[in-house]
Write a structure and sequence with these properties.
By secondary structure, the protein is of the alpha/beta class. The longest helix is centred in the C-terminal third of the chain and has 16 residues. A hairpin with a 2-residue loop joins strand 9 and strand 10. Bound molecules: threonylcarbamoyladenylate (TXA) and magnesium ion. Magnesium ion binds next to loops.
Amino acid sequence: MTQAKHLPSQLKQVAKRPRSEDGTPTSLKRQKVEHSPSAGILSVPLAATKLQQGEVVAFPTETVFGLGADATNDAAVAKIFRAKGRPSDNPLIVHVASIDQITFVEEISDTAQKLAQKFWPGPLSIVFKHRSGICDKVRAGLDTVAVRIPAHPVALELLKAANVPVSAPSANISGKPSPTCTQHVLDDLANRGISGVVDGACCEVGVESTVVKLTGNKVTILRPGKVTKQMLETVVGTGNVHLDAHLKTEDETPLAPGMKYRHYAPEVPLLCVEGSDEFFRDTVLEGLKTHKLVGVMYTSENEHKKEFERDDRILALNLGSRNDVAALCQNLFSCLRSLDQSKVTQIFSETVPAEGLGFAFMNRLLKAASNQIVTE
Ligand code: TXA
Ligand code: MG
């Protein structure tokens, strides 16, 4: 197969995705960054100083890379919205290094304390009633503020050194797939007024944090993520965790303003395919009647993967194993970005059952596909 002739350098890395002994795809270890350090790689101390000076810097977290600014500095936060081209009605998550830094909310309830104890530092954002201190732009004018303590050691080091609450959306151009490697950030934002990026290995989780709102002992999931409904139930009890209505039906307006936007999307149309391996292959072959080159995101167990890999008209990327949805999440945005940089004119992706972590995976995949799905 002559796949390489169509492949940008990054895609080759993703396509091969060799695994190290511990099973981690080696591409998730540190990738070589193509830009020179002068194009904006920052050390943690310098990035912390930049944050204190009202500049914006990108940094790795365990979910995706964030684009940070001092959440108490209106002018600094405005730079985030400008760099990303983000709608101003979409609030940002505030990142802190420890729970005692959360001095800007009305109350940290018992339920919030319990969730924090179990899941922080980690991929959970909790919406609190705002008291004072976090600027209006971060909250998009709401009287609430979403807060997270990330688990990534570099993020924690940076937050400690900066010693200010840091508002940080994903470090991508609004609407694009979130960045899970340093190179993704540079591809999107290198020339958009950011001070630079703190380099780091590719993100372990790969999809953004779970966002929850609390009412007494009840938890509402506004955005699904690595911390699943079942995991939250272990803290607040079965029956006390609900999905925001928009996650159950498309007709409802989401409580997290960001969830209403088209998101995570490649430029190239993406179709999700639900059914047997046979049906998946037939759908791809059908697509090849109208497209010269298509992208295929398949799982390791797919019975036809060798055919995809051999076919010159197909750029086939292995998302990982069906039995390891965490790996699928890790790889999703990276695969979408790689295919978007190639010459394919249509992408097909396998799907997984929307259960457990599969719910977060399918939420992002379907958004990237603008809900385009065919079922056997
Ligand atoms: O994993 C993550 O959460 C990453 C990393 C960088 O921490 N950040 C991230 O931020 O995904 P962003 O801006 O791409 O998504 C934030 C989501 C949006 O859907 C937004 O609407 C919601 O959180 N959100 C923020 N503040 C909120 C609030 N006060 N009430 C309801 N939803 C809120
Ligand atoms: Mg985002």
